[in-house]
# Entry
Amino acid sequence: MTQQGRDDLWRDFPKTATEFEARFATEVDCRAYWIAARWGGKPACARCSSKRVWSERDGFLFECADCGHQTSLTSGTLLEKTRKPLKMWFRAVFEISTRRTGISAKDLQRIMGFGSYKTAWSWLHKLRAAMVRSDSEPLGPFVQIDEALVGGKGGPYKELVLVAAEANGRVRLAHVENNDEGTCKRFADGQITADAHVVTDGLASYNENSLENRPHDRVVQTKAERRERDALQGCHWTISLLKRWLIGTHAGAVRDKHLQAYLDEFTFRHNRRKTNGVGRIAARVIEQLVVREPLPMRTLIDETRRCRWFGSAQAMMA
Ligand SMILES: [Zn+2]
# Structure
């Protein structure tokens, strides 16, 4: 969709619960919004892209007049094969977008009236998959990099997370197997501009191999110096917010193989904390539900890799 169309969908999205109830009162309302987000207003055949389609099953299916292929509203999207109405999904999107700290599976189960916890859990994972990094702009021009041990089932703080933070700006978080030179290099190359000025602590992995030609201050501070002026304050704040969020909203119940998905949600919210626009966030989530690949339960449970973005090369092959 064009930038113009996207901006219209953002502007158009309800900002309060009352507006939301009125705007998305029926399944037809939700379908119209979904069709605007997915196809810019007029459904197209998933096989041949023809716009000559006939609506069937009350507007949930479209049959192509040219090739006969049937396209459903949700096929090929994160909501593929959902048996629940879009209206319920829109409600869930609104709930997670209006809460600054997100929502736990237990709370979603209660709000939506789901019989099973598993349903709420899988819904949240789909919504989380829609809350991934959307700005491809690498961080800069001043970036702090640090690491922390967070989460971890069966004991506090055992999963290693790399953190990059702009001064008072955006952050990036990566669940990693280790913090060797190669991992730090992949993190820096993927997340930070080639000419950013980088500040780190004394860890030896941050060097001319991993950070290449970026100007680099390696700052080793005592506790007293840190209290006075913390050179890695952006990272330290981010880490403490992250830990509080994992414990507060999710009661620390995050499996290591899903940790990256939680980091993505945290980053999505954190990087939009100044936008302060429920409508913008919710519209963005729906836009991503439309364009992202389906995420069936089987994939979620059996095929999710630990450290899926920054694991070792070997683990990536598995
Ligand atoms: Zn067709």
